[in-house]
Task: structure prediction
Amino acid sequence: MSKPLRIAMAGLGTVGGGVAGLLLNADGELAERASRRLELVAVSARDRAKARAADVSRLEWHDDAVTLAACDADVVVELIGGAEGPARALVEAALKSGKHVVTANKALLAHHGAALAALAEESGVALKFEAAAAGGIPIVKALRESLIAYGIDAVRGILNGTCNYILTQMEATGRSFAAVLAEAQKLGFAEADPALDIGGGDTAHKLALLSSLAFGIVPSLDAIKTEGIAHITPEDIAFAREFGYRIKLLGMARRTPSGLDQRVQPAMVRAGTPLGDVEGVFNAVLADAGAAGPFFFEGRGAGEAPTASAVVSDLVDIARGAVGAAFGRPAARLKTLSGAPPARVSPYYLRFNVLDVPGVLAEIAGRLAEAAVSIESMIQRGRSPGEPVSIVMITHECSESDVARALKVIAGSDKVLAEPCMIPMEAG
Ligand SMILES: NC(=O)c1ccc[n+]([C@@H]2O[C@H](COP(=O)([O-])OP(=O)(O)OC[C@H]3O[C@@H](n4cnc5c(N)ncnc54)[C@H](OP(=O)(O)O)[C@@H]3O)[C@@H](O)[C@H]2O)c1
Result:
């Protein structure tokens, strides 16, 4: 067996603790698969005195994570997090000093992925990030290495377990977004500051990486239209169910005749389809791989064991000598996309909160017709003259920009009490 792969790791939290446990307690099986031992030699975290999931007391300790880049190791594993600060400084220093890097840090790569990939190439080392998108699901490797013969037409995924948990619970219990979020925070399924999750930012980070791998573009948030789930109401979820759909926060990137459409958006996904049936904290990705067909991946997108599993798979790849381009193509060949994505064309679910007064329905229908948006079906439940009611419409396939134009006018009506809700409908 060749000499061990020496590993230095920054971050001993949820993911780092799991990786340390796996490496320190590894039996011969992992070494056999990697053709060499994976040896954790040095670690860094903020607080040396903190109790850790694995016993790291005999390892070299670094108070300053960035100094790991200069220690006697072959690979630096960055599990601190954050697009800037010590995570970025460490990854840059490690790559410059000729060390392979493994990271789970989607924020860092979504902002600086192309520059870091270029640094890795200059130094002839690997930059690997299987854990950064969809946690334990091996989608990075699949898009980088496996689904390449026919090209990718579309990648769509449920990439944030917190959002999927909240939406699943809202559907199961009929409770409001705020009530379910508060419970998710208590149970540890949502962060104390949930903004990045529920605002769609975390999904956008992951989508930027998947898009780069699938379509050969520079990872970037600039061309991803991002919307969160905070405006979704139990009423929307109940209506979705009536129409045979479920509401999911999707990260989507697909080729269209007008260019690559990248967006993070709540969407109505047909129940009974692979994406429509993904429950709770699970993640899933549907990749349309040209003539090879669609491929569906589902699994745990977060948590100690799934994420540590993905980090260790990157380490095994490096131990075996796999040093390919980080995003599957030379960094200099990645194309830069900018500007808003093309307007989406799909059927839309529209909900209007209106005063139940004569003429309101005709007014809404008229405004939609003026914008070339035609209605396939409509529901108005109950009658309460002079009181607020909801009107729900499903449109035929139409352009997002036409719908948005009509809704802007409709929102200005004195009979309309709140910003209309607009959710695209996915076939499956
Ligand atoms: N948690 C998941 O399920 C998951 C899934 C996929 C990807 N990720 C990504 O994995 C990374 C780590 O996430 P996590 O959940 O493991 O985070 P975490 O539990 O908050 O752990 C962060 C670790 O980084 C250490 N740290 C913070 N600042 C540091 C500094 N300046 N120098 C050295 N160490 C420092 C902390 O030290 P102390 O322990 O001493 O405070 C802690 O051990 C992030 O990029 C995250 O996005 C996480």
Q: What stands out?
A: The longest helix spans residues 106-123.
